[in-house]
Structure formats: C-alpha cells, structure tokens
Design brief:
This protein has helices at residues 82-94, 154-159, 168-185, and strands spanning 5-13, 18-25, 31-38, 42-49, 53-61, 66-70, 73-75, 96-111, 120-131, 148-153. It is of the alpha+beta class. The strands form three sheets. The protein has a four-stranded mixed sheet, with helices on both faces. A three-stranded antiparallel sheet has the order 1-2-3, with no helix packed on it. Strands 6-5-10 form a three-stranded antiparallel sheet.
C-alpha cells in the first residue's frame, strides 16, 4: 500500500470523530477503498500520589456497553503543548494536580490501533499528585460519561490488567510507568 496512488479522499463524518474514506490505486492497477478514523494527537497520564496510589477514571463507554477503568486521557488542543494537555486532562477528569516539586515524566508516544486509526498517544507519569478539587470534565461530552475516580495501590493496578483494566493504552501506560518508577528509585 505504500506505493499506492491516492485517487480521492472523502470525510464521511466530520464531528465529533472524523472518519475518512480513501480510494487507492495499487501498483498492479487494483483500486481499493480504505477507511480510518482520523484523530488529533492525544495524551494519557499515570497519576501517582505521594503514598503510591494510582488515580484512575471509571466511566461508561457506550460503544463497549460497559464501565471501564482507565487512566485520565484526552485530545491535545490545537497549538497546545502535549505536556500542558496531559496536566489539563488530569485535572479535568480527576480533580488532581501535580504537587509543587512534582514531575511530569514523558513515557513515550505510541500509535493506538494503527490498523483503523492514526491515533497517536503521548504517555506521561505524573508524580506526586494531590487532590485540588472537583473534576471539571470538558464542555463537550464528558458530562455524559458518568465518570468517577478510583484510587488503588500501584501494585493493585498492575494486578488488575486483564481483569478490571482491559484497555491496551491503560495497560501499556501502567507498565511503562512501572519501569520509569523503578528507574527513578534505583
């Protein structure tokens, strides 16, 4: 597909999520349609308190028809530095902020489900964090997510991967944060 010729591109749905259909001509002359979700970059934060608890978000995901246990996450606004977006999402979804003297550690940037989207996630570890007030949510759709915060020891969060935690982004971020915390302790 790398050598395909793009014949046309059409936005099927523009908002709230952008879905695109592209018509490609392959080097052998075959024409195929390719569909994908075209997304803006996003962030996900692993917030860890002074006593080692992870602050997570429980929310109902309509497409899954169930509640999920995830880390705070969201999109990066236009011209917003990714670190600023991570801190904004942290307070919007949990009411927690980075403690004075705390550090926001970049854990890397990764594609999520690259077969179906161009979603690029920037992962961070925020430590230590403390509660600063009620989670604000955003002005668009989070008010309908029935979100709440869940606190658990970091080791328990790791133990919940594949049980209560079944999202790859959250699982991957927790594992990367574990490695970072180990290197900081060494």
């Amino acid at each position: 597909m790398k050598d395909a010729t793009l014949l046309s591109s059409e936005v099927l749905v523009a908002k709230p999520k952008r879905f695109v259909r592209e018509l490609l001509r392959m080097p052998d002359g075959q024409e195929i349609e390719w569909y994908f979700a075209d997304t803006t970059p996003s962030v996900m934060v692993v917030p860890v308190t002074e006593n080692g608890d992870v602050v997570m978000v429980r929310q109902y995901r309509h497409n899954l028809k169930k509640d999920t246990l995830e880390l705070p996450a969201g999109i990066v606004s236009a011209d917003e530095p990714v670190a600023d977006a991570a801190l904004r999402e942290l307070v919007e979804e949990t009411g927690y902020v980075l403690t004075d003297g705390g550090t926001l550690h970049a854990l890397g940037s990764y594609y999520a489900l690259p077969s179906e989207t161009n979603k690029y996630v920037n992962l961070f570890l925020a430590t230590p964090v403390h509660f600063a007030g009620q989670a604000q949510g955003d002005t668009e759709i989070e008010k309908y997510f029935d979100m709440s915060t869940v606190h658990m020891p970091f080791s328990e969060a790791l133990a919940q991967i594949g049980k209560q935690i079944d999202g790859l982004e959250t699982a991957g971020a927790l594992l990367l944060a574990r490695n970072k915390l180990s290197s900081l302790a060494a």
